[in-house]
Amino acid sequence: MTSPQSTALSAPARDWFQRAVVYQIYPRSFADSDGDGIGDLRGIISKLDYLQRLGVDVVWLSPIYTSPQDDNGYDISDYRNVDPLFGTLEDLRELTDGLHARGMKLVMDLVVNHTSDEHPWFMESRSSRDNPKRNWYWWRPPRDAAARSAHRGADAEPNNWGSAFSGPAWEFDQATGEYYLHIFSKKQPDLNWENPEVRAAVYEMMNWWLDRGVDGFRMDVINFISKDTALPDGPVADGKLFGDGTPYYIDGPRMHEFLQEMHREVFAKRPGELLTVGEMPGVTVEEAILYTDPARAEVDMVFQFEHVALDQEDGDKWRPKKLLLTELKQTLGRWQEGLAERGWNSLYWGNHDQARAVSRFGDDGKYRELSAKMLAGILHLHRGTPYVYQGEELGMTNMTFGAISDYRDIEVLNHHREATSHLGHTDAEVLAALAPLNRDNARTPVQWDASRHAGFTTGAPWIAVNPNANHINAAAQMDDPDSVYNFYRKVIALRHAEPVVSHGDFTMLLPDDPHVYAFTRALAGSPGDGANGAEMPDREMLVLEMLVLGNFSGEERNVELKDETWAGAELVLGNYASADHPSDGGAAAAGPLRLRPWELKVLRRSRRA
Ligand code: NOJ
Q1: Ranges assigned E (strand) in 293-350
Q2: DSSP 8-state secondary structure symbol assigned to residue 588
Q3: Does 309 reside within a domain?
Q4: What is the whole-number distance in angstroms between the Cα of residue 75 and the centre of ligand 1?
Q5: In sequence order, what are the residues at sequence separation of 6 or more whose Cβ sits closer than 8 angstroms to the Cβ of residue 26?
Q6: Is 224 near ligand 1, meaning CB less than 6 Å away?
Q7: How far is the CA of 339 from the centre of ligand 1 (A)?
Q8: Which residues sit opposite 4 in a β-bridge?
Q9: pLDDT tens digits, one per residue of 346-390
Q10: Does the annotation mark 279 as catalytic?
């Protein structure tokens, strides 16, 4: 084990977000106040006490801005207003005040790799080739004009890149005879960050939001904003129709320059107050160190995607494969190690783009509750800032959708169309392949109670409610001390109470064990005011250690630790009702630690350094 970080055990003076837990709200699916079937801001306001009781520190709100809703709000047509679907600026003010009054912060989604094609900036830009905003987006002439007139799109498009939502990444504009780039849907044209006017407009908008009391930003695909301006063709993989442009727009040449500029122009004006997290598909540990090193002044943390690609062939979510626990440990362990000295991790199992955590990493059948709790403990006790995606704290599961008409997500619908019409797959094949990892799994409404539509809406929900809402719901869990919800409360409280959780070193154990996830955390310091129950008679240095064990299987497992003395340590948290641990009942017998199916055990001890 490396030598533990040294600090006062009671209250390390670091950034506040390092002790915080973030809760993500996907507004469309959270709570509907007006019966139109779509969640809204007043719905969120009605659940503030629920969030406070859970104990989270920050709410990240997925986009609520004015939007044609082509990609559920990730296509923004007015950055300074609220879409009437969700409410008004006044409602947002009330939500912000309500969060602040309860000691929570508000982080807004910032979607500035692209706008909606209905944003006035784009409408101006497309209006003529010499419009002053033409260069705010990526316009290019047809590569081959003859091919264009012959409607041979693939030969005419400026390069071979495919869009993340199927089809080409270019859309032809008849009026001006040029193509524009859209990495996502054709209603999400990419902004040209090479243009300083674009950057200035974005920073001004961000400052406007900070002036309105928001406490930070989750920055959508922010590592796509700097592109290789030559826009070269990308490699075409087997079975694909288009080239992969990611080598030319992920972590592009001016990324760090742009983020440092944004930091100077926006974040530096609120030192120590904000939380900034960059969503960064394809980011490597080496790049993440640079993005999150405080000395470089870019962002506080990033969302990496390596651990959520391990159950896919070649990172293709439509070709799911079995997850190996050894690979999960290897990946998350590498991120823990990589950002140990410089930078900071964000920790997540799920969000609105990922399958439900318990269905993906746990067992959503017989062991749903146990495995949901085990996953909570494992994730939150890593070093980093944990994120809870709405409904995860209830152990909500993936949805079984039937026909393609049951889906709502543009990514699914476009893929289904392309795979059945151009790639020769049958409807049944496509539906089977997309079931485990499609994004709509996470977008079914939050299950508040067992009433009609799970208490989410009095109207017709925009997407079906999971029928298991009759037994998996908040009302059934709030007052049940053994519920998943109340277990999340305990895990969150543990992070707040224990500096070793927020600031301790991380060491992965048992990397080759296929079933047991095991790690230690350690923090050295003076006992200070005796926090953590670590009453010490003198001012000697003390090392606080925590051992976290999780069984990722439905069978009992022995845990073969090199250090057998852990068997006698204090059990601080477990997910079984009866602890069944040697330290309980005075039986201090050392011996192998055993884990029951999907069991979590968190042990603690302290020693003099
Ligand atoms: C990432 C967002 O999380 C996702 O929902 C969205 O579709 C894309 N970025 C495009 O904005």
Answers
A1: 301-303, 312-313, 316-320, 346-347
A2: -
A3: yes
A4: 9
A5: 39, 62, 352, 389, 390, 442, 443
A6: no
A7: 25
A8: none
A9: 999 999 999 999 999 999 999 999 999 999 999 999 999 999 999
A10: yes
Nearest CA to ligand 1 atom 6: 74
Residue 480 lies in a domain: yes
Residue 389 Cβ < 6 Å to ligand 1: no
Locate tokens 């989270």: which residue?
A: 56
373 lies in the same domain as 463: yes
The answer to whether 89 touches 211, Cβ cutoff 8 Å, is no
Evaluated on CA atoms 441, 447, 450, 456, the torsion sign reads negative
- The one-letter amino acid code at 52 reads Q
111 close to ligand 1 (CB < 6 Angstrom): yes
User: Is the distance from the beta carbon of residue 303 to the nearest atom of ligand 1 less than 6 Å?
Assistant: no
Closest CA to ligand 1's atom 11: 74
Which range marks the domain in which residue 478 is found?
Answer: 15-113+195-400+435-485
All residues at 6 or more sequence positions from 200 whose CB lies less than 8 Å from its CB, including other chains: none
What integer pLDDT is reported at residue 153 of this predicted model?
78
Q: Is position 411 annotated as part of the catalytic site?
A: no
Distance from Cα 68 to the centre of ligand 1, integer Å: 15
Closest among 88, 90, 72, 87 to 28, alpha carbons compared: 72
Q: Are 162 and 242 in contact (CB under 8 A)?
A: yes
Determine if ligand 1 sits within 6 Å of the CB of residue 353: yes
Torsion region of 260: left, alpha or beta (phi above 0 gives left; psi -120 to 50 gives alpha)? alpha
- Same domain? For 457 and 602 the reply is no
Record the pTM: 0.95
Task: Find the CATH number of the domain harbouring 576.
Answer: 2.60.40.1180
Q: Is residue 516 part of a domain?
A: yes
For residue 4, the one-letter residue type is P
3-state secondary structure at position 479: coil
- CA of 288 relative to ligand 1 center, distance in Å: 20
Tens of pLDDT, residues 20-52: 999 999 999 999 999 999 999 999 999 999 999
